Amino acid sequence: MATGRMNQLLVMVNLCSSVVEGIEHLMAFKENDRLKEDTVTGLLTLEESLKGFMADKSVIHETKWMAQVIKTRLFVYDQEFKNRLYRWYFSALKELRNLMTAEVERCPVCSGKGETHYGAVLYMEDEDADQYVLEPVRVFMKCRDCGNYYLAREESRLVNRKKGTNRTKVRCERLLADIGEFAAGGTMLFIGEERSPLYKEARKAGYHPQAMSLEEAGGQIEGDKKAYRIVLIDRISRTQDLKLILTQAAEYLAEDGILWFDGPDLDKSIKNLEKKGASMWKGEVAEVCMTDRGIDALAEKCGLSIRSYRHVGTASGRIEVIAQKKE
């Protein structure tokens, strides 16, 4: 669920707390040059990060001021300075909270504005205390611009996450046959784990899969990337960086190469919920949900063109996509 930007904001929150602790220590033990240097560095890092997020200018200015006065010791450790320190701290935390809220609502595909589409609420009663708890445990957003759906919030402490299910042998054979219509046999970049049933079936089908994790695929230097006729992403797990993942995977494609990926069929899940009362968002929450319209918008953003896609599965549907680089 967390994007790189969100992780950066969380680091900045922790850095704020560390800076305040450092300054409090300096107020008690003034002669500590190493701590003073670390505190100034932390404040300057915060300043640059806040600028990158285009945060409130008053917070940026106060952060810069705090770094300058501690560096040059143009202040007195008194109650007035202490009050100003805490005012800066709480204003910085408030601004970071606002930035986090904006990040949650931002579409990870097109950076458009999202709106709440579906929320799962947990209700619990406490008979002894005569109280109840009613709070959202999962919130899904829908982008107003590109129609993408994405998970914005999940309270994992209240939800037992359902383990993902493996593909059956028949489904693996069928999707490999789909791939074979565009590229039969040969070397394949398999973004996933070697223990995956799909990896094993690909070997049996005559392919030569080279396994690589998502992190490894994104961390390769441009000159070290090998071109493949087939790039297959086994699972796009809980992440909002879907656009980044597909863009990085496409960088490994040969000129006539194909990229295969899939995800839960959102429309199928909603129909199951409406018609059968089937449980929703247990399995879907583990991956990125897809729709017909969303696939086209996603491909456009990633510089891809859809060659084919199909809806599979009856109980819990999925959408399987084969794409190529745009010419």
Describe the SSE topology.
Layout: H1 4-28, H2 33-52, H3 57-72, H4 79-105, E1 114-126, E2 131-143, E3 149-154, H5 169-180, E4 186-191, H6 197-204, E5 207-212, H7 214-219, E6 228-233, H8 242-250, E7 253-264, H9 266-276, H10 292-301, E8 304-312, E9 318-325
Helix pairs in contact: 1-2, 1-4, 2-3, 3-4, 5-6
Count of alpha/pi helices: 10
Mean pLDDT: 81
Instruction: Tell me what portion of residues adopts beta-strand conformation.
Output: 15-25%
Looking at the structure, the CATH topology of the largest domain is Rossmann fold
Largest β sheet strand count, sense and barrel closure: 6 strands, mixed
> What would you call the shape?
elongated
Structural class assignment: alpha/beta
Q: In angstroms, what separates the terminal alpha carbons? A: 32 Å
Molecular structure report:
The chain is α/β, with parallel strands linked by helices and 327 residues long. It has three domains: 4-105; 114-154, no CATH class; 169-325, 3-Layer(aba) Sandwich (Rossmann fold). The chain is built from ten helices and nine strands. The protein has helices at 4-28, 33-52, 57-72, 79-105, 169-180, 197-204, 214-219, 242-250, 266-276, 292-301; strands spanning 114-126, 131-143, 149-154, 186-191, 207-212, 228-233, 253-264, 304-312, 318-325. The strands form two sheets. The chain has a six-stranded mixed sheet. It has a three-stranded antiparallel sheet with strand order 1-2-3, with no helix packed on it. A hairpin with a 4-residue loop joins strand 1 and strand 2 (131-143). The protein is elongated. The protein starts with a helix and ends with a strand. Residues 158-163 have low confidence and may be disordered.
